[in-house]
Amino acid sequence: MSSVSLNPTLARIDLYPVKSFDGTAVPQAEILPGGSLKCDRRFALFDSQGHFVNGKRDARIHQLRALFSEDCTRLTLWIDGSDEKTTFDLTQPWDELESWLSSYFQQPVTLQENRRMGFPDDTNSPGPTIVSTATLKAVAAWYPDLDVAEVRRRFRTNLEIDGVPAFWEDQLFGEEGQTVAFQIGEVTFWGINPCQRCIVPTRDTWTGTSTAQFQKTFNQQRLATLPEWVNRSRFNHFYRLAVNTRLPTTEVGKVLKLGDPLRLIQ
Asked: Do the Cβ atoms of 192 and 173 come closer than 8 Å?
């Protein structure tokens, strides 16, 4: 296992107030009753059949640009390359926003809100996802046309740890059915498993265009760089990156802040 005598600290917090929209970097984040971060995936888009309208189902979502106010109550939307921007108040009825989105996607689209947990992909591990800055840099180096910022946007993790080598976070999960306990600042986490990725990271975040051989390259490189001490039983395939977490109910209301240290709980 990699040494924890390094200096793992929380270097970045990213929230995604509307699922599949652009994220926003914040200096701190509060833990919700459902174990997720306040404002993260708080809203989601749905079609008339009750299915998510997201990056997995519709690549057109990548061409939407979104900017959120600091308190995540106001959303400015525009189509990439357009100068026409519209701002919506998320505390008010969403008729105008839903009409705008329905027009863009050419189908009825509604907005839903979940203030307790948001809309995580994995409801069994709804805590924030964790990756290291070094890992993002390593992945960017696998592709000649990608930089760290683009890799960060593609993988959409919540918490970024600095002061450690690439893939250091792979020690934050254990055997199937076991958890790894650790703290960031005053907040206790349970590491659950390496996050299984979907089609979204294969696409350019500005255009939705697929990167050729993205997943094949990723699988080959992930296997080649997997730390010797990692629990390989958790990798039925190697298209996995970052760590899924769950939080004890005792952590509700606590706040994560940039610069908080990370330490394993023995």
From this structure: yes
The two tokens of residue 260 are 């908080």
| Residue 179 DSSP one-character state | -
Residue type, 50: G
Nearest to 69 by CA among 2, 125, 24: 24
Tokens (6 digits) for 75: 């959303």
HSE-up (13 A, CA, CB side) for residue 205:
19
Residue 184 has pLDDT above 60, yes or no: yes
Q: Which two tokens stand for residue 124?
A: 């069994």
CA distance 34 to 223: 34
Task: Supply the DSSP symbol for 31.
Answer: B
Alpha helices in the chain (DSSP H): 95-105, 133-141, 148-155, 214-225
The overall average pLDDT reported for the chain is 95
Tens of pLDDT, residue by residue over 48-82, are 999 999 999 999 999 999 999 989 999 999 999 99
